[in-house]
Amino acid sequence: MTTRPETVIAPAMDDDDYFRGVSAGMPEGSRRVIDGLAKVKSVYVRCDRDDALLTGFNRFLERYVATRQLPRQEAECFFLVGSSGAGKTFAIDRMLGEHDALRPVQGPYGLAPRYVSIKLKGYSHPRLVGTHIIREAGYGMVADMGRGEVWDRMAGILRSQGVFLVHVDEAQHLLKGNASKEERDELANAIKGVAIDTKWPVAFVFSGLPDVLKLPVGDQQVERRGHFVGFADVEMPGERDLVLKILSEMGEPVGIGSDHLKETDLPERLAFAARYRYARICQLVEGALQEALHWQRTKLTPGHFAVAFERRSLAYGKDDKNPFLAEHWRDLRQGSFLTVDDAPARSS
Q1: Long-range contacts of range 103-109, CB-CB < 8 Å, 24 or more positions apart?
Q2: Could you tell me where in the chain the CATH 3.40.50.300 domains are found?
Q3: What is the pLDDT of residues 202-235, one digit of tens each?
Q4: What is the pLDDT of residue 335?
Q5: Is the pLDDT of residue 344 over 50?
Q6: Which of 206, 268, 303, 314 has its Cβ near the most Cβ atoms within 10 Å?
Q7: Does the pLDDT at position 29 exceed 50?
Q8: Architecture of domain 48-231
């Protein structure tokens, strides 16, 4: 009979050290590309929508601070909405993380956050969401709390932790699509109770798909108490300069130029392939830069984009379905082809 070796529990390892070990096991060319991609991924290309987001949030925060000690009848919430791939998560995470009013404060046990941010990956029961928020604030004694107790005690717990703002990303998952009136009312009352707490009213920020506007955050219509910012699609040709800016700024830290593409139709093809979504445009540019890094090129070419698109779809070997290769690319369906038998859409 064979015996299985005993499992050896390795000592705790720093996460960065761990992944440096993973990187060390990659081929030499891949290690060079990984270093370059890390620089590319650190780039955030600012645009007008960032200014609109900051301005809208500041207006919301002004009202919250000015009326904090006044009796509240309704819960005011801030909403950032946009289609998938619009870049909502990165933008609002960046804004919240850099906002001077939200910087951590020094407490007796180190830096204490003024806000918490959670991300929902699918429908979560309100009690689990409440537990997640409290734990993210640094309060660990929530295991024995009942279904309603989590939300009943949330304002007091957040006050003890110095947290006044809660951000919920992908907030459309707070509510099931077929939620009953009872479930909607339960969620509404939970959020409202925390937001209008007499001693520590909590500011709520919700970001997600347009369905997030269906959240029942009070007794009246959402437009009465909501502050809204929407991330629209990139407009062409009006925002062609933004696409060129993305190409230039993302390639700069790795020395890969794109100025020669200004007089071509690549910016239009790129926006089309990305469904005119900001984050998807950045994703495709990142993929093209990855190809250029592998080939050690100093200029981006349409070929780099074509290959990057192939790797994110099932268009490999089907040049007529690749918007960076097809002659009649405007007749294709926008976005990646995820099935091999997709036919080009007919133009009217």
Answers
A1: 105/162, 107/162
A2: 48-231
A3: 999 999 999 888 776 644 545 566 799 999 999 9
A4: 65
A5: no
A6: 206
A7: yes
A8: 3-Layer(aba) Sandwich (3.40)
**H-helix or E-strand spanning residue 3:** none
Structure tokens at 232: 């629209």
Per-residue pLDDT tens over the stretch 107-116: 777 788 999 9
Mean pLDDT for the chain?
Answer: 86
- In the chain, alpha helices (H): 15-24, 28-41, 48-66, 88-98, 126-136, 149-161, 181-195, 240-251, 266-273, 278-294, 302-311
What tokens appear for 1 in the block? Answer: 């009979």
Q: How many helices (H) and strands (E) does the chain have?
A: 11, 7
Q: State the burial class of residue 199 (Cβ atoms within 10 Å of its Cβ: 0-12, 13-18, 19+).
A: exposed
pTM over 0.90: no
Instruction: List own/partner pairs for 210-213 with CB under 8 A and 24 or more apart.
Output: 210/81, 210/82, 210/83, 211/172, 212/79, 212/81, 212/171, 212/172, 213/79, 213/81
Query: d(Cα 241, Cα 1) in Å, to the nearest integer?
Result: 70
Where do the H-state alpha helices sit in 47-148? 48-66, 88-98, 126-136
Q: How far apart are CA 170 and CA 104, in angstroms?
A: 24
pLDDT value for 67: 80
How far is C-alpha 64 from the chain's CA centre? 24
pLDDT at residue number 146? 67
